Amino acid sequence: MKSLGLLPPLRDILSRYDLWARKALGQHFLCDLNLTRRIAELAGDLSGCTVFEIGPGPGGLTRALAQTEAKSVIAIEKDSRFIPALQEVVEASEGKVSLIEGDALAVDLLSLAPPPRAIVSNLPYNVGTELLLGWLKNAEAFRSMTLMSQAEVVGRICAAPGGKAYGRLSVLSQFCCDVQKVLSVPAAAFTPPPKVDSAVVRLTPRADRPGDVRLEALEKVTACAFGQRRKMLRSSLKPLGGEALLKKAGIDPTLRAEALSVAQFETLTRLV
Ligand code: SAM
Predict the structure, then answer these.
(1) Ligand 1 center–CA 6 separation, angstroms
(2) CA of 23 to the centre of ligand 1 (A)
(3) What is the spatial distance between Cα 138 and Cα 109, in angstroms, rounded to a whole number?
(4) What's the CA gap between 63 and 7, in Å, rounded?
(5) Is the shortest distance between the CB of 59 and ligand 1 below 6 Å?
């Protein structure tokens, strides 16, 4: 795919198509093609996969993904201003990249391509967590999800029990997937630079996920426990059985939600 290498630099694309960043759509662009190549590499084995890229923007990461072993790349962009610029990438990719103009929150990825599938995205900051929580419902449908977001959000996804960062997003992510922070990216790497640094996390479906714990039930337990995270569990979990439930699970009812491991949340969920 020689012609991908002949595309103009991304800064030229931004100025040629007058693509200024819209804050409301969480737009911060990566113009360094070495960095986008690195992110595509960090996604690991994409061979044979249909890769979904959410929010391709000017197409820096899209170019890198088109040059991986993936079978195809489906890029979903909400902002129609980017479509003409992205069309250049589609053409240069000789059919490997296709484009959907629309809101990724409303797109059912599973209906678009059979397995193997993967997601690689520099997430729109404003809806990144919502998108991830949706994909977790079918985590096993994806070989991997490699996601860039604010460093603080990646910290929450990967957090261990005991700290402030550990919460509902940590438990749900780590129940469904093995999670690993694979890259830190300073704010200065983006155009325009956001206020905070970013990071890349890779999530792969857990092979040892217990089959007898339902994600919907775990969602309820974690909503209750972390909804009032400063309270003791005997009080925050009252609607689900409170002290009696915790005793059955062998968990000290005076603990707070942030002290429980993912395995302890699984135990509670089995009993609810
Ligand atoms: N991938 C590009 C890059 O790395 O330079 C742009 C990343 S920028 C952080 C997020 C992108 O997501 C923007 O292009 C924005 O228009 C797009 N976006 C925002 N909300 C979206 C949504 N709900 N569905 C699809 N794309 C969305």
Answers:
(1) 24
(2) 11
(3) 10
(4) 9
(5) no
76 CB less than 6 Å from ligand 1?
A: yes
Task: Give per-residue pLDDT as tens, 56-111.
Answer: 999 999 999 999 999 999 999 999 999 999 999 999 999 999 999 999 999 999 99
Three-state secondary structure call for residue 117: strand
Please give the radius of gyration of the chain, using alpha carbons only, rounded to the nearest integer: 20
State the DSSP code for 232: B
Is-above-0.90 flag for pTM? yes
Instruction: Output b/e per residue, 107-118; b: 16+ Cβ within 10 A.
Output: bebeeeeeebbb
Q: Give the tens place of pLDDT for each residue, 201-251.
A: 999 999 999 999 999 999 999 999 999 999 999 999 999 999 999 999 999
116 lines ligand 1 (CB under 6 A): no
Q: Which domains does the chain have, with CATH numbers?
A: 2-205 (3.40.50.150), 215-271 (1.10.8.100)
Give whole-number Cα distances, 100 to 53, 156, 236, in Å: 10, 30, 43
Which of 25, 36, 63 to probe ligand 1 with, by most ligand atoms within 8 A of CB? 25
Any ligand 1 atom below 6 A from CB of 28: yes
CA of 146 to the centre of ligand 1 (A): 15
DSSP strand pairing (29-30 vs 190-191): antiparallel
Q: Is the CB of 128 under 6 A from ligand 1?
A: no
Q: 123 CA to middle of ligand 1, Å?
A: 6
